[in-house]
Design a protein that fits this description.
Strand content: 5-15%
Largest sheet: 6 strands, parallel
Radius of gyration: 17 Å
Structural class: alpha/beta
Helix content: 25-40%
């Protein structure tokens, strides 16, 4: 349960393991890159939880890791929405085809998309997982999708040590017309033991692991900073009966 993953709403958060990036400041490193050792919730328990808590909730947040890697995400989101509360997907934007699939299945879905850096720095901030060309291509598709569904998308970035003020301005200028950028403050992480081998600081490369949160939360605004969240178990496909 969360008061800050969707500011202004009381939400339940479903965490999925796995990620296609290797950001050195990842705040859920143990979940993103070490989910194999965690016991997932079974579908029946997720179904019972969603159904029994829906009347007290304003939203369901699907996050990770990177939830767009999970097969059947669109069906999962639609099944959650059938319980009543709205659904928001957190994503790094590197699988625009999945975001489009979710919208096709659930037109009312919301999305919080992280724009990690100017395209030229994407390799630096993602642990070499994304080239500038890939970032421009995939985020370009996300931006086009957002222009067609302007009330469904919000964009944010975290001002990690690799980013300058000029970088943040460049990110803001890259967004499609009419969209604003939420800039989240960088905070150094408190790593758990299982995360220590994943998100490590590298002073020579100016790459620090950290927490992608903003310490302040503006209530009621979908485009507000996400806020602090804590690693949780990966969810499995579930639906309301």
């Amino acid at each position: 349960m969360s008061l800050c993953d969707w500011p202004g709403r009381l939400s339940a958060v479903f965490f999925f393991g796995g990620c296609n990036l290797r950001c050195p400041y990842c705040h859920n490193a143990g979940l993103a890159w070490g989910s194999e050792g965690k016991t997932p919730l079974d579908a029946a328990s997720v179904r019972r939880f969603a159904d029994s808590h829906a009347k007290w909730l304003d939203g369901f947040v699907v996050t990770g890791g990177e939830p767009t890697l999970v097969p059947g995400l669109a069906d999962f989101a639609a099944e959650l929405a059938a319980c009543g509360p709205a659904v928001k997907i957190d994503s790094n934007g590197m699988r625009p085809d999945v975001l489009a699939e979710v919208l096709g299945r659930l037109p009312g879905a919301r999305f919080s998309v992280d724009v990690k850096a100017p395209y030229a720095k994407y390799g630096l901030v993602t642990g070499g997982a994304v080239t500038p060309e890939e970032a421009a291509d995939r985020l370009g598709e996300v931006f086009s999708l957002a222009l067609r569904h302007p009330d469904r998308f919000a964009f944010r970035t975290t001002q990690v040590p690799e980013l300058t003020g000029d970088d943040v301005r460049e990110i803001r200028e890259a967004l499609p017309s009419g969209f604003t950028l939420t800039v989240q403050a960088f905070r150094k992480p408190r790593l758990k033991r299982e995360e220590e081998g994943h998100a490590q600081a590298d002073s020579k490369a100016r790459r620090m692991s950290g927490n992608v949160v903003d310490p302040t939360h503006r209530p009621g605004d979908f485009k507000s900073p996400q806020g602090q969240r804590h690693p949780g178990p990966a969810a499995v496909h579930a639906a309301c009966p």
